[in-house]
Amino acid sequence: MPDSNALVILTGAGISAESGLETFRSEDGLWAQHRIEDVCTPQALARDPALVHRFYDMRRAALDRVEPNPAHEALARLEAHWPGELLLVTQNVDDLHERGGSRNLLHMHGALNSALCAACDHRLPWTGPLPPAAACPTCGAPALRPDIVFFGEMPYQMARIEAALARADLFVSIGTSGAVYPAAGFVRMAQAYGARTLELNLEPSEGSAWFDESRLGPASQLVPAWVGEMLAS
Ligand code: APR
User: Fold this and answer.
1) Structural domain containing residue 168
2) CA–CA separation, 223 and 72 (whole Å)
3) Strand, helix or coil for residue 70
4) What's the CA-to-centroid distance between 90 and ligand 1, angstroms?
5) What are residue 117's phi and psi, to 5 degrees?
6) Is 209 exposed, middle or buried (0-12, 13-18, 19+ CB in 10 A)?
7) Best mutation site among 16, 177, 215 for ligand 1, i.e. most ligand atoms within 8 A of its Cβ?
8) pTM, two decimal places
């Protein structure tokens, strides 16, 4: 892809699967074990904050037991050596892209190692359990919550993402089912702006038909191979 200068890369839970983190929609995935409406909606947080905080405490604790895999590391290598723009947009709330070396990265669905004050919008790094009604260090309100975008809430930094898609020569989607909007619509937005589109996924996603090219297989093999092609071009 010799003329791909500006890249936008979208990742989903599939890129972290081989690190040992569960995806959402596989038969034994997170949404098979927990109802979304119990742990990932503003209503759930209001109704049973202890359950919601425990769910994210469990997922935050899991981060200590996993490592980045060759797919995360390959994307960091691409960022370090790519001559043009590269924006990595992840739907994931884990920290494996950062630990794999990526820097120009944004978490559109939030991050497990961050807490958000529901009263003043202050964000702060957070490791370990986050109890309900923890006091915000900025405003003092007992209103710290997981810094996670729940269903029904607006994903973060959408204007920045759309501006990057408008400039993209190539949009690559890795390890996502294409089940959740607005991320699932990025491929069509990128195409409308004239970008070429590539999907790297274990199985065809819901949006596969929209991609110019779709490669099927595990991310730990597909992503290093693709990055090798890009850096050789
Ligand atoms: N390599 C590549 N792809 C993989 C691998 C792997 N080793 N393992 C699984 N996949 C693919 C699956 O085939 C599936 O298409 O990753 C995708 C995971 O899909 P989901 O479980 O739906 O996860 P994701 O697409 O990230 O979900 C999007 O939904 O629940 C919300 O906010 C949550 O960010 C999440 C969003």
Assistant:
1) 6-20+68-109+155-232
2) 8
3) helix
4) 11
5) -85, 120
6) exposed
7) 177
8) 0.97
